[in-house]
Design a protein that fits this description.
The protein is α/β, with parallel strands linked by helices. It has 10 helices and 29 strands.
Length: 655
């Protein structure tokens, strides 16, 4: 896990560097489809790893991932399998390895939301757990590229940790593999199209180490192995003393991973956009700026950018060193000032593992707070003076119900004022942060929202989006229910049979209208009321039985009259009290009870086929399950199938 975390951090830094150098403005795409590249010298990196297994299902359109603020300029979304399998255009993520709790369509939507904030989203490949077998190297680079293009990722981060760590990464075979990964992905995701290629190597990867592999050293570098005492100021005797409280920096030369990036840079350094090195889990070395300087030396040669990777306390391999808030500020300022190789203004920055982790030193801070601190430091050193602005909410092409209020917000930098427009009509100008207004009662149809940021010198920046106002009862933009989807967050809305349903708790595979986990919300016939006279009771005082006849149960109706009989899944039910819309027959402790007109289930010869969607309230009910007869000893809840529990309600009956 430690290595996985380190690799993620490096990947994030790499992504940030690449993204800033070849950034495509979403607003430019919206308006004119023009490719606009920002200079690397003006866009410092703040990269953050986001582990996909920490993501939440959208609730009110929001998730942990979607809530990442724009101070995180690049996100390393981790991890996918190196040998992932993906069919172009399918948006099927089942064989990809990413662990978000939703389907591909929702992932695509999430990426779009992040990009609408100006955040670059990088796909991180590998990590600690996905490199442990020979099959991991059965890499289909075309399928990776198809996945990146389909989902709108800004590039990839090679988080290469052979055998789950950095211990063997310097071996010639693994160096060759790393080179091939970078070369192959660069060919399919060209820089000219705005794609970023990053990597997250070990923090000591640009320091020289001549043994056992001479290629992992560079005699010309000021960080060559022969110059290690001079470079660190430490005695040679402490080269392998990585856990001393004295914090010997020379110990960085004693790791098996030392120098592993040197032969990689010689071959494909020009193909990288940024390198987010993992400056953590490297023992107790105190002068860690040497890691940044060693990578900066090669960055000046090959044109990539560098992100200094730090770990939100505590690091798993320690406790020899901690990136507390003071060290965060110290190293971020060092990077902003350019270090020993004069890289101030070249767009270098920082990377963090990971965004959601809370500091063990100060639990009030997490990776996002660290990112904000670093962002403000880097911004203060940035040579940029012109304003920038981006609409933070709503998102582009949002569908918004006419009854909802809209928070029209903008994130602006170096701006004295921000003006808000609807359909090119000025609504309000604000001169203090937060730049936000509230909208309501917009007419149904499409609208253009625009913001213009201005500084005191009269320089301006513009962003513009489209939104659509829809009827309050519309089912538009509600995702279709899918049987294989996990709905972990209560209140999630889905569309099924042209009706909108909301789940009460965690569910997977439970069909709306046939399970009590789903509650009817709106939609269907008669504006979603389901009843002949619009009151949801099925018409008149007959309790939904159509003048005395028995009808199929309708989940969109309520049944206010006790004793109403309905047909559900071929069985008759009678309500004991008022049944609300969505109160499905068979629900445990619900209003409906099964009618057994001819003694069904009361004797072995009239045993019922067991139905996992039904409750069995009457003790002594006989059922057949998987060819065997059972009888319940007490009330049986839905899903409590025979044989599930040795001490459960069912007992086996010999035929």
């Amino acid at each position: 896990m430690i290595k996985k975390i380190l690799f993620l951090c490096f990947a994030v830094l790499t992504v940030i560097a690449c993204t800033n150098e070849h950034e495509v403005l979403d607003s430019a795409k919206r308006d004119a489809g023009k490719l606009f590249t920002k200079s690397a010298s003006t866009q410092p990196l703040v990269v953050g790893y986001f582990p996909s297994w920490s993501e939440t299902y959208p609730s009110g359109g929001s998730t942990r991932l979607r809530n990442v603020p724009e101070e995180v300029t690049h996100i390393f979304l981790s991890f996918v399998k190196p040998n992932m399998r993906y069919a172009k255009g399918s948006f099927d993520i089942k064989q990809v390895g990413i662990e978000v709790p939703y389907d591909g369509a929702t992932l695509k939507e999430t990426v779009d939301i992040l990009k609408s904030k100006g955040i670059k989203v990088i796909l991180s490949i590998g990590g600690e757990t996905y490199w442990g077998t020979d099959e991991a190297y059965n890499i289909n680079h075309q399928q990776i590229a198809d996945f990146v293009r389909d989902f709108g990722f800004d590039g990839i981060d090679w988080d290469y940790e052979p055998n789950g760590g950095f211990a063997t990464i310097g071996e010639p075979q693994n160096v060759a593999r790393f080179i091939d990964m970078i070369r192959s992905s660069r060919a399919l995701l060209p820089r000219e199209e705005g794609f970023l290629i990053a990597c997250a190597p070990a923090g000591c990867g640009a320091l020289g180490r001549s043994t056992p592999y001479p290629a992992n050293d560079d005699p010309e570098s000021p960080y060559a192995y022969a110059k290690r005492a001079e470079a660190t100021g430490d005695d040679l005797s402490n080269e392998y003393n990585a856990t001393s409280s004295q914090g010997y920096t020379i110990s960085l030369y004693g790791f098996a991973s030392t120098g592993h990036m040197i032969p990689v840079f010689k071959v494909v350094g020009d193909m990288l956009d940024f390198v987010a090195f993992q400056g953590y889990n490297t023992g107790s070395a105190s002068k860690r700026e040497i890691m940044y300087d060693s990578y900066a030396y090669y960055a000046n040669k090959h044109g990539f950018r560098v992100a200094f990777g730090m770990h939100i306390p505590e690091e798993p391999w320690g406790p020899y060193y901690t990136y507390d808030e003071n060290r965060l500020r110290e190293f971020t300022e060092y990077v902003a000032q350019g270090g020993k190789h004069n890289r101030a203004g070249q767009g270098d920055g920082v990377m963090f593992w990971q965004l959601l982790q809370k500091s063990a030193i100060n639990p009030a801070l997490d990776g996002i707070d660290y990112s904000k601190i670093a962002y403000n430091i880097l911004e203060n050193y940035s040579p940029v003076t012109t304003p920038s602005v981006r609409i933070a909410s709503p998102v582009n092409n949002a569908l918004i119900r006419e009854t909802e209020t809209i928070q029209f917000s903008a994130n602006a930098k170096r701006a004295a004022t921000v003006s808000f427009y609807i359909n090119n009509q000025l609504i309000e100008t604000i001169n203090t942060d937060p730049f936000s207004i509230t909208l309501s009662k917009l007419s149904i149809g499409e609208h253009t929202l625009k913001v213009i940021a201005s500084n005191n010198q009269g320089e301006t920046a513009i962003d513009e989006i489209k939104i659509k106002i829809i009827d309050a009862n519309s089912v538009e933009n509600v995702p279709l229910w899918k049987a294989d989807m996990t709905y972990a967050t209560s209140g999630t809305e889905v569309l099924y049979n042209q009706k909108v349903w909301s789940n009460k708790w965690w569910t997977q595979g439970d069909e709306p209208g046939k399970s009590d986990v789903w509650q009817y919300v709106r939609g269907g016939d008669d504006n979603g009321n389901g009843g002949d006279n619009g009151n949801g009771d099925g018409g008149g005082n007959n309790g939904g039985n159509d003048n005395g006849s028995i009808t199929e149960y309708d989940p969109a109706k309520s049944y206010p009259v006790a004793g109403t009989i309905v047909i559900y899944q071929g069985k008759k039910y009678k309500n004991k009290w008022w049944a609300n819309a969505g109160d499905t027959p068979g629900t445990a402790n619900g209003p409906w009870e099964l009618i057994l007109e001819n003694g069904e289930g009361t004797t072995p010869d009239k045993a019922l086929p067991y139905d996992i969607n039904l409750a069995y309230p009457n003790p002594g009910t006989f059922v057949i399950y998987e060819g065997q007869m059972y009888k319940n000893k007490w009330y049986v809840s839905i899903g409590d199938y025979p044989g599930k529990d040795l001490w459960g309600p069912w007992e086996m009956v010999n035929k």
